[in-house]
Amino acid sequence: MGIVVQKYGGSSVSDAAAVKRVAQRIVRTVQAGNKVCVVVSAMGDTTDELLDLAEQVTPTPPGRELDMLLTAGERISMAVLAMAIANLGHEARSFTGSQAGVITDSTHGRARIIDVTPGRISTALDEGAIAIVAGFQGVSQDTKDITTLGRGGSDTTAVALAAALHADVCEIYTDVDGVFTADPRIVSTAARLDTVTYEEMLELAASGAKVLMLRCVEYARRYDVPIHVRSSFSDRPGTTVTGSIEELSMEQAIISGVAHDRSEAKITVVGVPDVPGKAAAIFTEVARAGVNIDMIVQNVSAAQTGLTDVSFTLPKTDGSTAMTALTAVQGTIGFARLQYDDQIGKVSLVGAGMRSHPGVSATFFSALAEAGVNIDVISTSEIRISVVTHADKVDTAVRAVHTAFQLDADQVEAVVYGGTGR
Amino acid sequence: MGIVVQKYGGSSVSDAAAVKRVAQRIVRTVQAGNKVCVVVSAMGDTTDELLDLAEQVTPTPPGRELDMLLTAGERISMAVLAMAIANLGHEARSFTGSQAGVITDSTHGRARIIDVTPGRISTALDEGAIAIVAGFQGVSQDTKDITTLGRGGSDTTAVALAAALHADVCEIYTDVDGVFTADPRIVSTAARLDTVTYEEMLELAASGAKVLMLRCVEYARRYDVPIHVRSSFSDRPGTTVTGSIEELSMEQAIISGVAHDRSEAKITVVGVPDVPGKAAAIFTEVARAGVNIDMIVQNVSAAQTGLTDVSFTLPKTDGSTAMTALTAVQGTIGFARLQYDDQIGKVSLVGAGMRSHPGVSATFFSALAEAGVNIDVISTSEIRISVVTHADKVDTAVRAVHTAFQLDADQVEAVVYGGTGR
Q: Which SUPFAM superfamilies match (chains A, B) (predicted)?
């Protein structure tokens, strides 16, 4: 008897009627001969409503209390889902993250899972019950306080539980049919991928594909948990994330898909003295402010001036934090000024096959040039090429690249969109 | 430095503005030199909204899951209250019933507190923080599942914590000014009591006074915790519940007040064979159905028939359960038929002084007779006389008795009304 972990996002349990539909799907999975552990997010807009309530009493809620507040959302959805399953004649028991043994560090708002000790879940499954677990939450190992895992947290809860329970598969239910070769809202001919490797999915997620969060895929790869991403609104198969690029056969498609990301901004530090240690000083300062940077480019020094420019991209949400931190050390580092640009977009091509096909870069850049897309920054990995361009050019770039690699319609493999996931 | 436990009901934290007002009152208590532990109920209509949600998925929610659902209400209010306090520059830490060490039995929906181990609360208070505890909830000693304490549960949480923390006082904040000599909505001249003994408050609560629940007062008496019932909407002093009737001086008022209760119904078992064991059989059956009965009266047997009638009162909410249980054993017990009457009301006079004043009963019954109130059932204790009459006659009876004992306006001591408390 296999164990299946299913995760349902907020849009899949938006109201009582949706919860009842999900209950029926869970019961069908049980009737098919599986032990089922379900991870559930807060219903619909609950999290936003709770955040609104917090804002009404303070502009700066303490992280500990905000986590206590937000975890009420999953508490409600999991209890109601358990009731809906009971109403279908099956026993379901709901468990908080703490009860399910999701042990984290103490970083409120974006805690990391340290360990999962799902003793109570295993007992429930062994006793024939369906286990319903609150996603997105855990309990701090040190302080015993309630924590939340941050964006995409429920997906991570599901994968972590699947690993700890040695589940056969972790099914992530969302409002889209799986992972696509591009965002179907931009490329109408985008195709759904049947399978994609962990490495490719990691690159896609890091490049802006929203259907799965990066840390969830990282966790799945580390513990070798197959993820099946599919829609809770249909019975169609979705996309299975599994396997390594090392195992791919030569016949495998070269390219999985085209991802894009409009969530980043670019900061350019202008007039940096071109002497050793200046770049290190800049990025040390940014890191100290708690800002994660993505791409970095340093322009060639103008020989006459002995000055250079350093650009980097970062989440827009960290923009003002980074600008403030750098402004404070302008005198120490000795740069001329800062430029901030949030009208940028990143377009990435991902595919395991590009390792052994040297022509990929040429095709990629040719397609962008023919479409009139200017390239600002370039970054590559073994299985990915990314460029930064103007935000207005993102759609054009995605379509041009999608067509150039013959991904349109019935032509094979992968990227992503949609899903607000937590 | 004394410890004060404060409990705020749902009407005191109905919205963000109300929560902020409560936060200010808590901070003032801290500034006056106290360590403060706060017990809070769910905000306004939250509990009803959660019950509505449950009803949308099933008519019969499992108790375990209903408790999981409802406890989300206090989780929200306590976190928001802690945030509002933080916004005033004081540290507050919220704790679930489980985190606060409220250990109960496993009876979902009306669990009883077995033990309170408030280690984390004491630590928080010692570290200078304000502790905010979710009322109404605990954790089962046996199953480790979340439980709720049922009606008036938050008051009981507060008193239990006050006892465990050896607090100086347990302040119960509500939407009325304290305990009155009668319900001011019925008797406009009802007066607030300054103090009332535990025994009198127990009788008042058992007789329909809603400002404090019976079990909360029982708990306070057992652990000798003074309760101060007062309004969260004013700074006026309320009513202090403390001391034993044994300690009362001779000058103490004879009567505390007049309570009434319209929540009961009466069942009459007609034509019961007047032989030993029949009454026992009836009440055994009712008890087996889980129904608590209040007053019992057995009519004198009609000599000719060898049959008698047995009447008893019970909560209206248990009416159909009791009727069903008795109907099932009609053949075995051999009674003729059942009568059900939910148009009844109980009026009670409570006062420690009536022990030593034999004329109290006479005055009580004379006042009712003069007001034209028919008496159906009578029950007494050492410090209480209760009668059952028609529901329509309750207001008339309360006013007549209140006047007969000179309780109007500035004439001394105590009963109750209002507050939906949980």
A: ACT-like, Carbamate kinase-like
- The reported pTM is 0.86
Give residue B101's identity as a one-letter amino acid code.
G
Strand order in the sheet with A195-196: A92-95, A130-134, A35-40, A3-8, A169-174, A227-231, A239-241, A195-196
Q: Model confidence over A61-70: pLDDT tens digits?
A: 999 999 999 9
Residue A109 domain-assigned? yes
The per-residue pLDDT for range A88-125, each reduced to its tens digit, is 999 999 999 999 999 999 999 999 999 999 999 999 99
Assigned domain for B205 exists? no
Nearest to B16 among A23, A57, A59 (CB): A57
Residue B192 is assigned to a structural domain of this protein: no
In this prediction, residue B353 carries a pLDDT of 82
Cα–Cα distance for residue pair B123/B118, rounded to 1 Å: 9
Asked whether residue A252 falls in the same domain as residue A377, the answer is yes
Collapsing DSSP to helix, strand or coil, B11 comes out as helix
Indicate whether B155 and B299 sit together in one domain: no
**Which positions in chain A have a beta carbon within 8 angstroms of at least one beta carbon in chain B?**
16, 19-20, 23, 50, 53-54, 56-62, 64-66, 68-69, 71-72, 75-76, 78-80, 82-84, 86-87, 92-94, 99, 120, 144
pLDDT at site B252 = 62
B134 pLDDT higher than 60: yes
More confident residue, B155 or A298: B155
Tell me whether residues B69 and A54 touch, CB distance under 8 A. no
B110-125 pLDDT, tens per residue? Answer: 999 999 999 999 999 9
Cα distances from A200 to residues A228, A230, A241, A261, in angstroms, run 15, 18, 9, 16
CATH number at residue B35: 3.40.1160.10
Indicate the pLDDT class of residue B249, thresholds 50, 70 and 90: low
Decide if A212 is inside a domain. no
Looking at the DSSP bridge assignments, the partners of residue A171 are A6, A228
Q: Name every chain B residue with its beta carbon within 8 A of the beta carbon of A99.
A: 144
Residues of A in contact with B76 (CB under 8 A): 50, 53, 69, 72
> Is the Cβ pair A61, B86 closer than 8 Å?
yes
Query: Taking CB atoms and an 8 Å cutoff, what residues of chain A touch B78?
Result: 68
Q: Look up residue B103 and give its two tokens.
A: 């250990």
Residue A19's closest CA among B72, B65, B145?
B65
Domain limit, last residue, from A125, A146, A174 = A174
Domains in chain A: how many in total? Answer: 2
User: A298 is in which domain, residue-wise?
Assistant: 248-422
User: What is the per-residue pLDDT for A418?
Assistant: 34
Q: pLDDT digits over A353-388, tens only?
A: 887 777 898 999 999 999 999 998 888 888 999 999
Are A159 and A252 contained in the same domain?
Answer: no
Query: Token digits for A103?
Result: 């042990």
Q: Which of A58, A71, A83 lies at the smallest CB-CB distance from B58? A: A83
Strand partners, B185: none
Q: Give the minimum alpha-carbon distance from A59 to chain B in angstroms, rounded to a whole number.
A: 8
pLDDT digits (tens, 9 = 90+) for B157-187: 999 999 999 999 999 999 889 999 999 999 9
Q: How far is A134 from chain B (nearest CA, A)?
A: 11
For residues B117 and B167, the answer to whether their CB atoms sit within 8 Å is: no
